[in-house]
Amino acid sequence: MTDPMIAIHALEKSYGIYKALHAVSLDVAPGEFFSLLGPSGCGKTTLLRSIAGFETPSAGDIRIDGESVIGKAPNQRPTNMVFQNYAIFPHLSVAENVAYGLKRLKLSPSEEKRRVSEALDQVRLGSYGERRAQQLSGGQRQRVALARALVLRPKVLLLDEPLSALDKKLREEMQVELRALQRAVGITFVLVTHDQYEALALSDRIAVMFAGRVAQIATPKEIYQHPQSREVAAFLGGMNFLSGRILNETATSLSVEAGRFGTVAATKPAGFTRTGETTALGIRPERLRILWEPQDTPHQITGTVVDRDYFGETTHLRIRAEGLDEPLSVIETNSFGADDLPRGATVQLAYDPEAFVALAD
Q: Contact, 179 vs 31, CB < 8 A?
């Protein structure tokens, strides 16, 4: 097994009586794109700044490439950081901004110029070296910040919500570029974000954090399809919640009596713990579908449309079904007319009885 590039063990950080991190432990592999995801105040930025050396942990250890960095200054660590506001010097040119961190290395002028040119080419700004910061768009400033971090050839690049200042379209474009850049340079990236879709799109693995603790670490697909708790399930995308009575249990699944849905086979995510004869269940909105033509299938329920939101290619529906405490969320593409369903319409919903996941409360 490959040794981790970053190994964090029982890390804690307190500010007086407030504890920002509670015994956080995780590993990040060499060349991995790893994201720290969670709501504001969950501790993800504190953890990132602790890796960078801008915060001093109260307890625990951080090892980068096998060596502890506790007590080392930021410039003594094999890391570099891209900040949320980019921190570009407006009085310097693009090339001078990128070269700024190289000054302490005392390189020859030709070597410095070569490395700056290489870094700008990596972020597709090769012809922008003489421009000033005020002449750049938001996306171009973000690329300059990336080039300035990469020019020092760190083992780990730390990214503190670097796309949050961009508009939606540019943000999505930069997500594609950032992932392509990480694959091209091949170094370890650690991203802090509160945007679930950004984390799902960019990451090899995601650590979801709440209140200074890591709730789950998994691949995007695993964490979306098999969240370990209701809290994680609710944070990553929409989820319909209900409760059921456990009938049988295997190592990987539960057979659950789920009211109107009948008996379903709910997946048991890693770390699931049973606390009694009932369990919380979740099913994603896209795993429910409207039957536009009558079908002879036992896995369907009747509901009434109570609300809808139009999103262009999809419509998000709220459908109330008898026996359920809350309306069901359903996502339908608009190719069959979901955008034209009036409130009050009666619909038949089909479901896969194996699409449910059991959740720890």
A: no
CA angle 220, 273, 36 (to 5 degrees): 30
Is 42 a residue whose pLDDT tops 90?
yes
Say if CB 74 and CB 150 are below 8 A apart: no
Find all residues with CB under 8 Å of 350, minimum gap 6, and list them.
288, 289, 290, 291, 295, 297, 299, 300
Local structure of 107: helix, strand or coil:
coil
DSSP code for 224: H
Can you spell out the DSSP letters for 266-311? Answer: EE--TT----SSEEEEEE-GGGEEE-SS----SSEEEEEEEEEEE-
Q: How far is CA 57 from CA 126, 192, 209, 219, in A?
A: 39, 18, 17, 27
With 90 as the cut, is the pLDDT of residue 333 above it? no
Residue 79 CB-density burial (10 A; 0-12 exposed, 13-18 middle, 19+ buried) = buried
Task: Answer yes or no: are the C-beta atoms of 260 and 324 closer than 8 Å.
Answer: yes
State which of 39-48, 119-128, 295-304, 338-347 shows the largest mean pLDDT.
Answer: 39-48
Q: Who contacts 178 (Cβ-Cβ below 8 Å, separation ≥6)?
A: 146, 159, 162, 163, 189, 202
Domain extents for the chain? 6-224, 230-359
Cα(98)–Cα(121) distance, rounded to whole angstroms?
12
For domain 230-359, which architecture applies?
Beta Barrel (2.40)
What is the per-residue pLDDT across 184-224, written as a single tens digit (0 to 9) for each? Answer: 889 999 999 999 999 999 999 999 999 999 999 999 999 99
Helices within the chain (DSSP H only)? 44-52, 94-99, 109-122, 138-150, 168-185, 196-202, 220-225, 230-235
If you compute the radius of gyration of the chain from its CA atoms, what whole number of angstroms results? Answer: 24
Mean pLDDT confidence for 16-24: 94
The CATH homologous superfamily to which domain 6-224 belongs is P-loop containing nucleotide triphosphate hydrolases (3.40.50.300)
- Residue 279: which of 249, 302, 303 has the closest Cα? 249
